[in-house]
Amino acid sequence: MTRPSADAGASDAEIIQLIQAFIGAQTGETPPEIVRLHRASLGKSRENWSLDAVWGGDASGPEPLIVRRDPEGGLVDTDRELEFNLLRALEPSGLPVPKVRWLDATGEWLGRPSLVMRRLAGESDYFVVNNDHLPLATRVSLAERFCDLLAAVHLVPWAQLGLGEILPDPGPGAAEAELARFEQVLRTDELRRYDEIEAILAWLRDHAPRSEPTVLVHADFKPGNVLLADGEITALLDWELAHLGDRHEDLGWVTQPLREREHLIAGAWERDQLLQRYADATGFDVDEDALHWWQTFATFRTLVMQVSGLRAYVEDRSDKAYRPTQKVLSTGMRQITKGSAA
């Protein structure tokens, strides 16, 4: 029997058939009935299908699941097997991470590399801390809890959980390692060179800080990757970029100028308040020079992702033409021409 296609034009019935065959192969049992299939989103890096699996004879009710699959083209390439193994290792950590169920590492069953995980309750809102429909006290409380969650990520005993067997430890050279990683992506995907990107890259090379101690870095920490239900945090999602490295990387990402509206509240939850709460929660000092470097790196990384998005569009792997914008280019140039972020 010919397996149905999993391309973008596949019908819901074909997608259901693929998922059922995949789950059946993983469990060795009669696959569940798939109901309420919904393409939850087409993110900038992954495709997501929401569904409920109804197992025969299971009185506990349907199992809520998410199928997370690589798109044909995205802003950054990541590894589903690594993400799967990381999430599994983090299950006993106490962090609100989704439980992973099955992995299609090669895309043999679902067309492209995919993982299936338990779907948790809640909704995400990129700009919830600046949602004027919520009382200011509520928004500040949320911002504080987001900060506490980031601190909890950095306090994870990664060596005890075996993350060193999954992720390389760059040691004091975390900045150089991440810079080299994204410079390679830039050189692979660029269709032309931008003077601003070259200047930002040169500055980053010349000012890379040393790092200690090594922590687990989420690398895309934002309210848009946090699920909230009745005002409570239920999940931290999108671990595809996570790695071992410098705590200032996540701090630079959340305090960079491009993301202030996601993380800060003017006059109520400013940069210094976030950094002080983080320091109190972790016991880690914040090095202002290192923070400034990682804020600049965050802008560089955004530009590289835009470069990759444009190549994906040109090669007909994406239907949206991302490209380096003047806003991001200008932000990066301002970063390298000012002193410490203090």
Automatic annotation (TrEMBL):
Keywords: Transferase
Keyword Transit peptide in annotation: no
Family matches, as InterPro entries: ACAD10_11_N, AGP_Transferase, Aminoglycoside_PTrfase, Kinase-like_dom_sf
Domain Aminoglycoside phosphotransferase: 49-287
GO molecular function (one): transferase activity
Record Pfam families: APH
Keyword set includes Transferase: yes
Protein name, per record: Phosphotransferase family protein
Organism of this sequence: Baekduia soli
